[in-house]
Design brief:
The chain has about 120 residues and is mainly β. It is built from no helices and ten strands. Strands 2-10-9-4-5-6 form a six-stranded mixed β-sheet, with no helix packed on it. Strands 1-3-8-7 form a four-stranded antiparallel β-sheet, with no helix packed on it. The N and C termini lie far apart (about 40 Å).
Length: about 120
């Protein structure tokens, strides 16, 4: 089972950028899709972006498409989420997990706060 740990959140002004990192361990990931998810205060957790580890093929939610970019570094076993043109409504706890089904227990995630 793949083990994933997020990092890189913080406080940023609207219009700014942040890059989140997800460190993967636990064996071969070629058969996995890895996704970024977020949970805003008072809302359900939602899908943000996903990437196929083997091919790099990516998909995005409508709300972030064109602003966020998911990528992976096979040599470092890392998945990244580059977030540009951030809005206050992007404020949430961001987590990485398998996709399309999140099979790992949810960890603490990493907090992203976008101020207006």
């Amino acid at each position: 089972q793949v083990h994933l740990v997020e990092s890189g959140g913080g406080l940023v002004q609207a219009g700014g950028s942040l890059r989140l990192s997800c460190a993967a361990s636990g064996g071969s990931f070629d058969s996995y899709n890895i996704g970024w998810y977020r949970r805003a205060p008072g809302k359900e957790r939602e899908f943000v972006a996903t990437i196929r580890w083997s091919s790099g093929s990516a998909g995005y939610s409508t709300s972030v498409k064109g602003r966020f970019t998911i990528s992976r570094d096979n040599a470092k076993n890392m998945i990244y989420l580059q977030m540009n043109s951030l809005y206050p409504e992007d404020t949430a706890v961001y987590s990485c997990n398998t996709a399309p089904s999140a099979v790992n227990p949810w960890g603490q995630g990493t907090q992203v706060t976008v101020s207006s």
